[in-house]
UniProtKB/TrEMBL annotation:
Name the UniProt record assigns to this protein: aldehyde dehydrogenase (NAD(+))
EC id: 1.2.1.3
Start and end residues of each Aldehyde dehydrogenase domain: 23-489
Subunit and interaction comment: Homotetramer.
Family: Belongs to the aldehyde dehydrogenase family.
Single GO MF annotation: aldehyde dehydrogenase (NAD+) activity
Enzyme type, top EC level: oxidoreductase
Organism name: Chitinophaga skermanii
One Pfam family here: Aldedh
Record keyword ATP-binding present: no
Family matches, as Gene3D superfamilies: Aldehyde Dehydrogenase, Chain A, domain 1, Aldehyde Dehydrogenase, Chain A, domain 2
Active-site feature positions: 261
Keywords, ordered alphabetically: NAD, Oxidoreductase
């Protein structure tokens, strides 16, 4: 790991605020990054104070007119080079993600691959960004719409995808002509600094001014400054529903735009017509991958009564085979939780399940001893519950899987939808009628609904996001780019008269 830290120039850093290649002076408090893998301190960073934050925003403001004047395909070419930079650094950055955040090495590499993929997507997009043309009701008139950049895009991100979420936002925002200011999670500052170094090198090589890519390492207060800042027309915030409600209210109070990607409480419906072996893979990976710390983690299995016991037995035996330990060791399936606070929340949730009447079929607990010194390794567990329990309605960011029994598909869909969140959902069935009902408007109410695929993960080509308390935002593929631009309708009169719309006469 030492050579990776040196490669990205990480260690004792006296500034966590950057406008590109420049790192600004700050008197903010020191943020210590410790690895949940072994509990060791990886590095320290000086967080932003208000003055450093303001200086970064001023730099972004100055860069914006220069950046937006560069043709979009040329901006795309620069994003293509960032993708190349990420390809070269995939191994080092992937390992750092795994060590600082605690996800498995394969998932660390996968996260960097997602960043590369969104760069590729954004390059193609840079030659599109298209509006529509409409037929005017007036003779000799042409009407169309076009998209212009917004300005500064503020990006607030969560610890669990410490770098991919930033790239989903920034690569699209950059080809759209916006400049970006990123406030990463205070739990994963070093991976963010590594990304800033990769990006800054590409921008400098292309003579792009400082300020197009700004980084503000800071605690929650830095996110609050951004939400309240009228110089930031769009705040894209990923994190808990608690955070999203606060950001949404503050941004709406100044009539700014927000793009919210918040908590999930995702379920897989396993019907009597499911392929149970396939369902098992989807359910187990969905529940324990990233130690249950994905927004798309499978938290609930809604299982038909006729296959309930058989599937429960399969699950229990699969859980017995899970190897928990160092995520950098590719033999292990499950790594640590992010920190001790997450472990406390996991334990409190287990108690809450028991207090409400839930019955554990695979017990949880914290692991100790050799290899588990960080105190962040917990056992994935499974409980039989009722959907209405308060704790089941809540997203616990840990590997606790709930089993719920159903008898009719209508009932299963009602259970699936019967939570405040609406991110990802899935049905396992080989029956066409069941699958189509689940996907119809009488089916899942989530932003993502899958058939014979679990809830966890997504491809960047589709729009990503969810409904209800998940916040309603869409990022990444499809037409998600439109959130980073303002739409303008244009009507051009090339006739010799000025007819008014709707036949109105105004003679004088
Ligand atoms: P968190 O809400 O604690 O923090 C997320 C970010 O918001 C951090 O950068 C934090 O500093 C900042 N923040 C916190 N309070 C703020 C406030 N009042 N104003 C402005 N900024 C504030 O979340 P976390 O623990 O880092 O991440 C886990 C959560 O993120 C889970 O709920 C998970 O489902 C969600 N998540 C959602 C998606 C998605 O796409 N829907 C993706 C990843 C994570």
């Amino acid at each position: 790991m030492q050579n990776i830290l040196q490669h990205f120039q990480l260690g004792e850093l006296n500034s966590g605020v950057s406008t590109g290649n420049s790192w600004l002076h700050s008197n903010g408090e020191k943020i210590v990054s410790s690895s949940p893998v072994d509990g060791k301190v990886i590095g320290t960073v000086q967080a932003a104070d208000r003055a450093a934050y303001d200086a970064a925003i001023s730099s972004a403001q100055k860069a914006y007119p220069i950046w937006k004047a560069i043709p979009a395909p040329r901006r795309g070419e620069i994003v293509r080079q960032i993708g190349e930079g990420l390809r070269k650094n995939k191994e080092a950055l992937g390992k750092l993600v795994s060590y600082e955040m605690g996800k498995s090495l394969q998932e660390g590499y996968g996260e960097v691959q997602e960043m590369i993929d969104i760069c590729d997507f954004a390059v193609g997009l840079s030659r599109q960004l298209h509006g529509l043309t409409m037929h005017s009701e007036r003779p000799g008139h042409r009407m169309y719409e076009q998209y212009h950049p917004l300005g500064i895009v503020g990006i607030i991100s969560a610890f669990n995808f410490p770098v991919a979420v930033w790239s989903w936002n920034s690569m699209l925002a950059w080809v759209c002509g916006d400049v970006c200011v990123w406030k990463p999670s205070e739990k994963t500052p070093l991976t963010a600094i590594a990304c800033q170094r990769i990006t800054a090198e590409v921008f400098a090589a292309n003579d792009v001014p400082e300020g197009v890519s700004c980084l503000v390492i800071g605690n929650r207060d830095a996110g609050e400054w951004m939400a309240a800042d009228e110089r930031v027309p769009l705040v894209s915030a990923t994190g808990s529903t608690r955070m999203g409600k606060s950001v949404a209210a503050v941004v709406a109070g100044r009539l700014g735009k927000s793009l919210l990607e918040l908590g999930g409480n995702n379920a897989i419906i396993i019907t009597e017509n499911a392929d149970l072996d396939m369902s098992l893979i989807g359910a187990v990976f969905g529940a324990v991958g990233t130690a249950g710390q994905r927004c798309t983690t499978t938290r609930r299995l809604i299982i038909h009564e006729s296959v309930y016991d058989a599937f429960k037995d399969k699950l229990v035996s699969a859980y017995k085979q899970l190897r928990i330990g160092d995520p950098l060791d590719q033999h292990n399936h499950v790594g640590p939780l992010i920190d001790q606070d997450a472990v406390k929340a996991y334990l409190a949730s287990i108690e809450a399940v028991k207090a409400e009447g839930g019955k554990f079929v695979v017990e949880g607990g914290v692991l100790s001893g050799a290899g588990y010194e960080s105190g962040c390794y917990v056992k994935p567990c499974i409980a039989e519950v009722e959907n209405h329990y308060k704790i089941v309605q809540h997203e616990t960011f840990a590997p606790i899987l709930y089993l719920i029994k159903y008898s009719t598909l209508d009932q299963a869909i009602a259970l699936q939808n019967g939570v405040p969140q609406g991110l990802s959902s899935a049905i396992m069935t080989l029956n066409l009628r069941e699958a189509e009902q689940f996907l119809s408007n009488a089916g899942s109410d989530c932003g993502i609904a899958n058939v014979n695929i679990g809830t966890s993960g997504a491809e960047i080509g589709g729009a990503f996001g969810g409904e209800k308390e998940t916040g309603g935002g869409r990022e990444s593929g499809s037409d998600a780019w439109k959130a980073y631009m303002r739409r303008q309708t244009n009507t051009i009169n090339y006739s010799t008269k000025l007819p008014l719309a709707q036949g109105i006469k105004f003679d004088f």
